[in-house]
Amino acid sequence: MVDQKSKSVITLEEYIIQSQNKFPGAKGELSQLLRDIGLAAKIISREVNKAGITNILGEDGSTNVHGESVKKLDLFADEQLISALNRSEITCMVISEENDGIVDLDNDGGKYIVYLDPLDGSSNIDVNVSIGSIFSIYLRKNTSTKKLSEDDALQPGLQQVAAGYVLYGSSTLMAYTTGVGVSLFTLDPSIGEFILSNDDIKIPDYGSIYSVNEGNYKSWPEGLKKYVKYCQEVDDETNRPYSARYIGAMVADVHRTLMKGGIFIYPDSQEYPNGKLRLMYECNPLSMIIEQAGGMAIDGNGRVMEITPESIHQRTPIFIGSKQNVMKVKEFLDEHK
Ligand code: AHG
Ligand code: MN
Ligand code: MN
Ligand code: MN
């Protein structure tokens, strides 16, 4: 725990340095990387908050590797994050939703690999609803080979050295973990600093909110249909019926789940036989956050973070949130396999 008694306000930079001092011998490279992401987040937040009055809304006209129409703000966020990571020579390559292959930063000595969902929930941009950025950080696997390849980056989520997100909502929040708990910061735009708001956040063990796109009901696995019916039954003891909440931006739905408990689900479906959400830059980083906060994240069978990735843009089903809620949906999925 960081000593909060002595100071009322701790900035992200101060917190990162104080935390790093707890690891003697740490050279501060990961700290620098997190500070660089914080800088890009402030720039993106400023653009998001004035999007309505600059022509940054709308489509860019291109489609990405997923066949999604790319929004101007998707590309702006991608550019800002990649250039921030390029400020210090510690990141050797970036994999981003908005780039088909690896982005080699030509920093041969760089020991970190960063996955990015530069803007998550893009469909919310034009209707002024929460969006976010998600990041996942690994150590480069084989430093021997000169040439960087996707293979360097195909590591299970358990190998993440850090992960986190920025949420551009009613305020701009940044959450991250380096494997010793989850810290939460709120951007104070009047001083342009992220201020520590919680330095060891824990997810409630049980929650009465379920979050899933019910429009896909017809193609859900049978167990999920039965689970959602269970959520809707009346039972005071287990605080049912639950409330249904769906923001349409994974980072916002998972942040609400972190704060209030419950479960977020994106299963496999007819349209997305392997699920819609991407393993490496949506599901793994948010699973690390939720597990570090005491929750669970599975793909319907095992832990999301134990999946051995085969491709940098691969998708996975995900059931993530409070431990009791995830174990309950797993019971229904197993019963109706
Ligand atoms: P992105 O905007 O990065 O492409 O991600 C969108 C994802 C995720 O944020 C959200 O949970 C999900 O798409 C919503 O999908 P549906 O519209 O199919 O519910
Ligand atoms: Mn997208
Ligand atoms: Mn996304
Ligand atoms: Mn995205």
Automatic annotation (TrEMBL):
It is an enzyme of class 3 (hydrolase). CDD domains: FBPase (cd00354). SUPFAM superfamilies: Carbohydrate phosphatase. The keyword Nucleotide-binding does not apply. GO terms for cellular component: cytosol. Keywords: Carbohydrate metabolism, Cytoplasm, Hydrolase, Magnesium, Metal-binding. Its cofactor is Mg(2+). Coiled coil: none annotated. Binds 2 magnesium ions per subunit. It is found in: Cytoplasm. Mg(2+) 1 binds at residues 97, 117, 119. Pfam families: FBPase, FBPase_C. Substrate binds at residues 120-123, 213, 246, 276. Residues 203-333 form the Fructose-1-6-bisphosphatase class 1 C-terminal domain. Belongs to the FBPase class 1 family. Homotetramer. This is Fructose-1,6-bisphosphatase class 1.
